[in-house]
Amino acid sequence: MKTGLLILFLVLSPLAQAIDSRQFANPEQQEAYETLTSELRCLVCQNQTIADSNAELAADLRRQVQEMLEQGKSREQIVQFMTDRYGDFVLYKPPFKAKTSLLWIGPIAFLLLGLVAVYFVIRQRKHRAVTEPTQAEKLAKIRRILDEGDAS
Amino acid sequence: MLKYLIPLILFIVMAVFLALGLNLKPNEIPSPLLDKPAPVFAAPKLLAPTEKLATADLKGQVWLFNVWASWCVSCREEHPVLNEFAKQKAVTIIGLNYKDDPAAAKSWLDTLGNPYNVSIMDQDGRIGLDWGVYGVPETFVIDKKGVVRYKHTGPVMPDDLQNVFLPLISKLQAEAL
Q1: Of the residues A22, A83, A147, B134, which has the fewest C-beta atoms closer than 10 A?
Q2: Do A33 and A22 form a contact (C-beta atoms < 8 A)?
């Protein structure tokens, strides 16, 4: 049974490729195509890149990227073309602007906030550890009170 | 006191953000085309494929650009609204028949009625791409100078026409060329 499954998976593994792999004559273009399609968002199925998506719009956008690369357009030109039409939302790596600052600074701000909180918690613990009497001191105090008797 | 206040404040902040999140519409992506010149096209007319309609032909008038397709379910919902609206003759309505089969598109207009002054064909979706179309139906309002002034994503409903489109159209009609 196990061997059978293993053989099945091995036989099927060559099928596990990008949805729509395209061939370029030039390896640089091939690489640019692959990075671009994995950085552009499919706007229909919003949590997928156009490389991953089966939607028709994603196919159109892939075709557009391919054509522009073949025309010798640069990466920046293609990204510009897409943002002119679909806005920054089409980019998985949005540019840093006033509007997107929260997106970029947010995680760092939360991390710093967390570090500050950890610092204060630790300091408080240390403080308590120093001022609080040790077990032996407490025992001595109890013994003393027991020996002397309760005054009240 | 502070011990109880901090979790309470954290809870309120989270609740506010979650409530805001519930009311966001991630499907409505703001169009970067707003207040920019409408993307140029020259495309064959659906009902007269030998003739072309170009953006330049529409200069000087306010027009609605409605993206539709016979395969689109929400368009079927929107269609009677557009038919009714077209009767008012408030504005020129241009249809973009997006990624559709011309025969299917024609029979759709024959059976459901044709609210469009002209529909143009965009079988491979290139005009749609230029306009940033990502979901059908979409409706744009273009002013006399050929500038995109409004975009509506999803089916246009009578309320939208009454509250948004009609006031905007009459404002744009009043603008000088």
Answers
A1: A147
A2: yes
